[in-house]
Amino acid sequence: MKAFVLAERSDAARELCAGARTVADEVVLVAVGDMEVPAAVADKVLHVALPEGAVFDDAADTVIAAFDAEQPGAVFAEPTKHVKVVAGKLAAHAGASVITDVIAFEGDVATNMFFGGVGQKQQKAAGSVAFYTVGAGVFAEAQASGTNAVEELAWVAPAKAVKLVASKPIEKSGVDLFKADVVVAAGRGFAEKDELKLADDLCEKLGAGLGCSRPLTEGVDWLPTEVYIGVSGLMLSPKVYVACGISGQMQHMVGCNRAGALFAINKDKNAPIFKQCDYGLVGDIKTVLPALTAAL
Amino acid sequence: MKIVVSFKVVPDDQDIQVSGDRSLDYSKAKPIVSTYDLNAMEAAAQLAAANEGSSVVGVTVGGSKIDDSKMKKNVLARGVDELYMTADDSCDGLDAHATAEALAELIAKVGEYDLILCGDGSADNYAQQVDVQLAAKLGLPVVNGATKIEAGDGFVTVERTLEDVIETVEVPLPAVVSVTPDIALPRIPGMKDILAAGKKPMNVAGAEGSYANAIEVVDCKAPEQADRKLEIMDAADDGAIEKFAAAIKAAL
Description:
The structure holds two protein chains of two kinds.
Chain A (H helix, E strand, L loop, with lengths): L1 E6 L2 H12 L4 E7 L11 E5 L11 H11 L3 E4 L3 H13 L4 E5 L1 E3 L2 E6 L4 E7 L4 E5 L14 E4 L10 E7 L12 E5 L9 H11 L2 E4 L27 E5 L5 H4 L7 E6 L12 E4 L2 H11 L1
Chain B lengths: L1 E5 L2 E3 L5 E2 L5 E2 L5 E3 L1 H16 L4 E8 L6 H8 L5 E6 L8 H15 L4 E4 L11 H9 L3 E10 L3 E7 L3 E8 L2 E5 L11 H7 L4 E4 L9 E7 L9 E4 L5 H12 L1
Parallel strand pairs in B: 1-6, 1-8, 6-7, 7-13, 8-12, 9-12
Antiparallel strand pairs in B: 2-5, 3-4, 9-10, 10-11
Helix pairs in contact in B: 2-5, 3-4
């Protein structure tokens, strides 16, 4: 079987190629634009050069042409917005649907979240080609290999092109919560932006990264969207997770319930998080956090 | 401009019960508009308000249960002028490909339109694929991750907030655009809006075609809960904070 890998970031490309290798005899990496292609990960690298003013997503027609020529049996895609468009167009072309945000594979049966983790669905492709988007970490143990024979694809222009006017990098906080052993998360219990200082102090003491639940990034911009933990945000599994002023809605918990040890601080003793943590502390973050930081 | 906003009706996840065998029981869960589709509706209403002579049509496809009068009024109380709905048990649990097919047939009844808006992802599957599949089916351009939309002459200028960059793009109309929750905060409809909603046109019909899923669901259950210690302390008790701190240190 031949597998396609669609990714726009090198780390994801490497991991997905490694994962594809576990089920496919031939791994073909589709590299769009100026992504740095990781060394020795695929048998073939199909490179798509983006014309001036074209968006990544519009590489879909070129990728469809390559798909028809190569006829892969499976497609593994990185779950970014750009790649989700390309994967979706490819699936539509094949009369298929993408099984998205897969968290585990068992043969051709893929598991993903249902209602943000209330349930887990096990699904497989009904047709001859399987399409998946797969998050970071699922194939962390797999080994990539290949000679990376590069082939340049001829650009197939879309019928109705989207015009790229500007692209500016998002200023990142520099924190990569995926790499943090300890994550402190702030929630609605923080009544004012100034109070985040208390969480910062705790982070400094623990060498932790600071994340948050949705109320702190939506509507208010107390913390950048990129550190939002939960459904459609980060899904983390740190050694230690300290949830501060977070009630424990499923939409958030799905992003942290794979943590090694889960700690919770909340002033409401009936908060659902106290049914899902290892250690809970009932109290107001305004008084508890400084005391905790001092006690550590 | 004529704006179609596509939304999904899902069981209210607050009332989904987990049975002893970990199967999910929806019998107590009322049909509601999937949370982030409310943001898409608000974005549609605001875009319509900013462009004189605009109208907003809501479209949805699902099982017969979605034909719920409270839910329909809720939609029409949010700046949506007219509703088109395919409510048919053959449309329950469709995957993205099949949903797009059913939506495309429904949208054909709406007539001419300029823009189709979708939400970020549905509360149940969160696949973020119906926007793309629908665009492919209709032969339209599509962009996702929209945090701002401005109407131009024959195109919309869309700001997309992606993982690493913010893109500004021009999308020729008609087009499909899916929006992030940040684009607009859903309004809270007043009593007047809800009363007026009951008088707006609601076009509800059964399915005309049959739609086949391309994904086979093998199983769907609540996950096994991680075994947690559940040691809850009151911060006001003597030594509680020290004990909590010691537990954190031990886990590091």
